[in-house]
Amino acid sequence: MKTSMLAGLIALSMSMTTVMADDHNTIKTHTIKDSIHVISGDGGNITVVEDERGLLVIDSGLKPYSEDLLMSISDIADSPIRFLVNTHWHFDHVGANLGINETGTTILAHHNVHSRMQQGGNIAAFGREVAPATANELPVITYDNGIKFHWSNDILDVQHFPKGHTDGDSIVFFENANVVIMGDILFHGIYPFIDASSGGSMVGVINAVNHVISNIDDNTVVIPGHGGVTTDKAGLIAYRDMLETVYSTMLAMKNEGMSVEEIVAAKPTAQFNSEWNDGFIKADTWVKIIYDAM
After folding, report:
1. Over its length of 294 residues, how does the chain's per-residue pLDDT go in tens digits?
2. What is the pTM of this model?
């Protein structure tokens, strides 16, 4: 990796940490539908689903804010957390696993989430080394293609999508409430991070988004991993169109033999920057990330 690119990725890592810290200062709980709530501002978006038997939580945010998360969850309902589902292995989605597990929770995730957490590893784009998780942080139930929860008078259909944001991503479809939780397959209104070092790929993300679009309607509430708390089918289509256009443009350039520096200089995201360039990943850095995820 050339010095200029490395410097840019180091700056990205610092920016991501700053954004997460700032988000925590504005942690909020949003009621989406009936018994479905989203906690934002503590790493990735966290979903809490109420049931008479307790709570089901999807993702757990950042480790330093475990106590704050548990307080926010208790403000929703003074009920035990029965299940925690991790949509993937990144630290901003599994960070409070230990704190939640200590309340007597069962943690579930795809096999690859367990494997990556157990082994630890490097998130190359951020230059971040992740230590192996302790036994009490790990999922104790893992699945291959997916798993279903009969919860809150609904069926929560958890489906695995390979080689997306990582190789362990899960998307959760609520069959009755008409809600879908996309984890980091979807960054709403900002350029998304795709972790090639964890088995992620641009094509995998596009395929997952297309699958969701084909299985929802105009009234579906779509919950992203980052960005705004919700979007809808039209918002998801706009996201897909942006991804496909940038991918096809960059693939043609890469097939012509252009280097990553040459592609960055060609500004393949120019037509989208006014709408998508307000996140912690800026356009030029995103192009470098996508180059590795193609």
Report:
1. 443 443 444 344 433 433 333 344 478 999 999 999 999 988 899 999 999 999 999 999 999 999 999 999 999 999 999 999 999 999 999 999 999 999 999 999 999 999 999 999 999 998 999 999 999 999 999 999 999 999 999 999 999 999 999 999 999 999 999 999 999 999 999 999 999 999 999 999 999 999 999 999 999 999 999 998 999 999 999 999 999 999 999 999 999 999 999 999 999 999 999 999 999 999 999 999 999 999
2. 0.91
* Residue 37: other Cβ atoms inside 10 A: 22
Domain ranges of the chain: 3-292
Task: List the alpha helices (DSSP H) in the chain.
Answer: 3-24, 66-76, 91-94, 97-101, 111-119, 202-214, 233-255, 260-266, 273-276, 283-292
Answer whether 100's CB lies under 8 Å from 70's CB.
yes
For 49, 74, 86, 97, the CA distances from 150, given in Å and listed in that order, are 12, 22, 17, 22
**Cα–Cα distance, 179 to 45 (Å, whole number):** 14
User: CATH code for 3-292?
Assistant: 3.60.15.10
Task: Classify residue 132 by its DSSP letter.
Answer: P
